[in-house]
Amino acid sequence: MEFKSLKIGKHLIEKPIVQGGMGLGISWDRLAGTVSAEGGLGVVSSVGTGVYHDRAFADKVMGDGRPYEAINFYSTKALFEIMKNARKICGDRPLAVNVLYAINDYDRVVRDSCEAGADIIITGAGLPLSMPEAARDFPDVALVPIVSTAKALRILCRRWEKAHGRLPDAVVVEGPLSGGHQGFKYEECFKAENQLEAILPPVVEEAKKWGDIPVIAAGGIWDRDDIVRMMELGASGVQLGTRFIGTHECDASDIFKKKILDATEEDIRLFKSPVGYPARGVKSELHRLIEEGKAPKIACISNCVAPCHRGEEAKVVGYCIADRLSDAFEGKEDTGLFFTGANGYRLNEIISVKELMDKLIYGE
Which residues contact 76 (CB under 8 A, 6 or more apart)? Predict the structure, then answer.
């Protein structure tokens, strides 16, 4: 099969490979810029930009160095710096930003992303019904929501068309093998009817009813054979996150990469999260500390996600997600939270983004 380019709004992606937006600090300027430079769609994660370059771009940090409140955790100045540096790598090729719908300050971060030069905004972690409103002053920026069912896409399209007079420029359908937060409750992640192969065709059919919206398949995709399989089911492109962790250009710490490289299949689990839905990652020292009641104190300094209710849900599950993702980014193995997809145990080497793109397009 010969892969066709992927059109998202006014933007043409030469190779139909979207690099998943991985926060905190896993996909920033180096990774996203290089993926776009190599003909895919690089995606900058907007999560936790306040820790970029040792918090130099956060206007206020607390005594332990944690960015104070969402305005600093999702730092405007840092996002602009990340985008500027990514552009030095990829030039005017399409570049996207991932903005989670569940965060505090969602509308502001979308506007920041557009002003910083994003061509495409991708949003998951909730059904982004108000996404067009957040980007209304930027008509050329393509909007790509993430859904898990055809019903969700139908609801979203009806609402967008009625309230905003527009439709998604593409849609990502994500199955429950992805890294990080899932679009299904814990028990639902294991049901056959919720796996990517099952949910993709109905989403493709629903997308056709609204003007043939391009559908991007995500969650557990590993190699060219998987991509071909998704294309045969109707996808126009695919999104991969975990495989890009195993690249030299990935912005993650060396300890983060080693944590994934050393993980066995049994190490990768679904965990409770303050966001309310399960998240997939590597079982680590942090989880042992939580079980023993010795995990770091929860103070909710950054106020990162609305569903956490200012740290109340964090106390229920035993950890602050902002602090623990920040620790992982900084290579703090004992207290870091290390997200990966279900296939993370298959990573066994660090290669260049170019090598990975060639493997995905032409085969191993």
Answer: 108, 112
Sheet holding 180-181, edge to edge: 180-181, 279-282, 268-271
Are 168 and 192 within 8 A, CB to CB?
no
Q: What is the pLDDT of residue 246?
A: 97
Which class for 287: exposed (0-12), middle (13-18), buried (19 or more C-beta within 10 A)? middle
Count Cα neighbours of 88 within 13 Å in the Cβ-side half-sphere: 8
Quick: pLDDT tens for 28-37.
999 999 999 9
What phi and psi, each to the nearest 5 degrees, are found at residue 243? Answer: -60, -30
Strand (E) or helix (H) holding 208: helix 196-209
Residue 103, token pair as written in the block: 């965060």
CATH label, 6-53+73-255+346-362, candidates 3.20.20.70, 3.40.50.170, 3.60.15.10, 3.40.630.30: 3.20.20.70
Distance of CA 265 to the CA centre of its chain: 22
Label residues 86-122 b or e (16+ Cβ within 10 Å = b): bbebbeebbbbbbbbbbbbbbebbbbbbbebebbbbb
Task: Look at strands 142-147 and 171-174 and give their pairing.
Answer: parallel
Name all contacts of 313-319 with Cβ < 8 Å and 24+ positions apart.
313/274, 313/275, 313/276, 314/274, 316/272, 316/274, 317/271, 317/272, 317/273, 317/274, 317/290, 318/290, 319/274, 319/286, 319/290, 319/295
* pTM of the entire predicted model: 0.96
Domain ranges of the chain: 6-53+73-255+346-362
**Token pair 């557009």: residue:** 114
pLDDT digits (tens, 9 = 90+) for 203-214: 999 999 999 899
